[in-house]
Amino acid sequence: MGTMEVLERVGVLVESNEILDLLENAGAKVDKEKRRARIPEYLVKEACGKAPSSFDIYTRDMERIRIGPGRTTISFGAGATYVLDLKTGDPRPATKKDVEQLTRLTDAMEHIELCMSPIIQDVTRSLVDVHSAEAMMSNSTKPPGVCPGDARQARYIIEMASAIVGGLSELQKNPIILGYASPNSPMRLASHDLQVTKEFVSRKLPITIINCPNNAATSPVSIAGTIVQTLAECLSMVLIAQLMNPGNPVAAGPSPPVTDMKTATACFGAPECALVTAGSAQMMRYYNIPSYASITSSDSIGIDAQTGYEIAWTAQLPMMAGVNLVNGIGLIGFCEISSYEKVVIDNEVFGGLKRILRGIEVSDTSLAVDAIEAVGPGGHYLSQKHTREQLPKERWFPKISNRLSIAEWKKEKVDLWQRARKEVMNILQTHQPKPLEKEKRERIRQIVNEAERAVAKA
Amino acid sequence: MSEKENALEQISKAVQGYDEETIFSAVKTALSMKIDPGEIIEKGIAKGLRIVGEKFERGEMFLVDLISAAEPAQKAVKEILEPEFKKTQDRMKTLGQVILGTVHGDIHNIGKNIVSAMLFAAGFQVLDLGEDVPAEQFAKKAGETNAAIVGASALLTTTIEGQKEIVESLKASGVRDKVKTMFGGAPCTPEWVRQIGGDAYAMNAMEAVKVAKQLLNIKD
Of the residues A19, A277, B42, B211, which has the fewest C-beta atoms closer than 10 A? Predict the structure, then answer.
């Protein structure tokens, strides 16, 4: 296999002497001077054997969310710098208030199970992830996915989550956060990502390894080559996690843009992205590791037909390939913009996609010979018991898609974007997530304040 | 076509053929014929890059063609021609020198590398300080060279403060007024650049070339 050959022949650049030692002691061929670790196949296979094939995280109310085979766990899309302003429709810098509102919106979305955050622009830069965590933890019971930029922020966030569940040992039993860390393509593990990984794994907390291979720029232009590199990078981090704590829950996969050849922009809505995520998901299943992928991102700046078809093709293929954990919800404009409206649209799309993935049930009831006989030639099915009974199982019910008649539509001519915005406004005005208890809210505020003081002192 | 014209044409063609070895040998041949290094750049390398650049602008060539031509050409200028200029103390004719790097603590270099190649292809001289560059290093190089622009990218919220430090460092070294500054990278916004007292924001490599020209009042 290409992946194993790459890990053995090329290896990874590891920017941490501690991790280089860890890999060397385990059996990797380490060049200390060049900080390169060449990893034999058996080590990777052993690590994949130790990592659980599925794991659970929990809502604040201790509802279990399984990440693993047989289902796709859907998360809000992280990392946008801008938010599409609800009033003007223009991209503007993301604020902490946006994260609070987007989290409340996520809380109301039936298909979105995890919160994540854009990059807040109006707080202390070095504490962006801590502020994000506070905004998410306070505005939804759904667990936040967190991607701390450094070890210090990771520790604060873990402390906040521990405070909510009543201590670290409780958090280990029922994790209400999911960590994220990234290898750097090509084939490089930066010290801060390794430190963040260590903060989670040394505390036995689940972590997702995501790489961002920029097709034709930081990964091969061939889809297969990008998948090989994705797997090699992700599995090298999976190995490190398993060496630190054998059996630690870990998911892994790509957030793969293609480098546009006319504009040099990293595009996340291309059809090739879907091939990389789907192929990687299939391979992760082969390695028995829960698979991650970033999907539904569109490169359109507003909400239009391009948004629609890019959501469709980046989401459907990896979901059909059985990807276990996805994010990308709400993202447009090269993953640089979060859109409130698109959160609602993505939620709608996932409803439809889940229906497609449920497939065609074939049973005596669904083959409906009796119903066809009961109706007989020339009759209709609308008053049949079979129709009433099977309807909820067979049908998906859209919330914001147009199904009005031409005459009805002509009255207001409202498009999907406007309908989605109306839905957003409605939810923001009426939806009240279950509040975090006052003393817990105050405690995590305290932790944020401590972090601010520590930064101010430094 | 004279022998000299032919030699320069060979360089231009070599640049359009992306092959480092061919470019190097064509440049060396021209030097051995005592062709002026300035002319080698102007009528050989820059001409070849201009042709590739125009085809790129027209959509006939791709980013990969542009970078494949620019990188070995840039290397030939740096390794073979710059030493010649040093010998004669002549100035290289360019649109201006740009100092580039990723900020301290940040190793994400692909954006910076593309910007570097595209600025060079557009006619700028680029001093690429590489990745994870301390702010003081930008200021030091700005003081030592005739650089017109200092540019830096950051991909992380934890490293973007490095852009602010560059502006501060330029001020502290007394060279802030000597250079323009431009910044980019995922967490970077025009608002941020204004806030830190930078001169310009560039969203991507294409824009970086335009912004660099605007900063120096160069017309397209």
Answer: B42
Q: Which domain range does residue A31 map to?
A: 2-40
- The alpha-carbon gap from B7 to the nearest alpha carbon of chain A, in Å, equals 31
pLDDT of residue A14: 98
Q: What is the pLDDT of residues A114-158, one digit of tens each?
A: 999 999 999 999 999 999 999 999 999 999 999 999 999 999 999
**Tokens read off for A287:** 């390695």
Residues A102, A338 contacting (CB under 8 angstroms): yes
| C-alpha torsion A275→A280→A283→A285, nearest 10 | -110
Instruction: Tell me the per-residue pLDDT of B52-95, one tens digit each, with 9 for 90 and over.
Output: 999 998 999 999 999 999 999 999 999 999 898 888 777 778 89
Is B196 within 8 Å of B167 (Cβ atoms)? yes
Q: For residue A458, what pLDDT is reported?
A: 84
Q: Are A135 and A100 in contact (CB under 8 A)?
A: yes
Which of chain A's residues have a Cβ under 8 Å away from the Cβ of B157? 119, 125-126, 128-129, 149
Q: Rounded CA gap, A30 and A156, in Å?
A: 33
What is the rounded CA–CA span in Å between residue B62 and residue A217?
A: 13
Statement: residue B194 has pLDDT above 90: yes
Is the ipTM higher than 0.90? The answer is no
Which among B156, B188, B192 is the nearest to A149, CB-wise?
A: B156
* Token duo for residue A322: 């059985």
Are the Cβ atoms of B206 and A82 closer than 8 angstroms?
no
With an 8 Å Cβ cutoff, is A215 touching chain B?
A: no
Which of B116, B118, B158, B159 is the best mutation test for A, with the most CBs of A within 10 A?
Answer: B158
**Dihedral-angle region of residue A75 (phi above 0 means left; psi in -120 to 50 means alpha; beta otherwise):** beta
CA distance A50 to A242: 7
User: Which 8-state DSSP code applies to residue A184?
Assistant: B
Look at residue A430 and tell me if it is in a domain.
no
Of B189, B205, B206, the CB nearest to A121: B189
Handedness of CA B162, B167, B172, B176 (dihedral sign): positive
Write out the H or E segment, with its range, that includes residue B220: none
Question: Nearest CA to B17 among B72, B58, B92, B88?
Answer: B72
Asked if the Cβ–Cβ distance from B63 to A190 is below 8 Å, we say no
Q: In this complex, is the C-beta atom of B64 within 8 Å of any C-beta atom belonging to chain A? A: yes
Of all helices (H) and strands (E), which one includes residue A189? strand A188-189
Mean pLDDT rounded to a whole number for chain B: 93
A177 with A209, same domain? yes
Of A82, A190, A261, the CB nearest to B62: A261
The answer to whether B88 faces chain A, any CB pair under 8 Å, is no
Q: Which of A196-210, B84-98, B188-202 has the lowest mean pLDDT?
A: B84-98
CB neighbour class for B97 (10 Å; exposed up to 12, middle 13-18, buried from 19): buried
Domains of chain B, earliest start first: 3-88 (1.10.1240.10), 97-215 (3.40.50.280)
Judgement on whether residues A88 and A36 belong to the same structural domain of the protein: no
Q: Which is it for the CA torsion A156, A162, A167, A171, positive or negative?
A: negative
What is the count of structural domains for chain A? 3
* Contact yes or no for A126 and B206 at CB 8 A: no
Contact in structure between B183 and B201 (CB atoms under 8 Å)? yes
Q: How confident is the model at residue A1 (pLDDT cuts 50, 70, 90)?
A: low
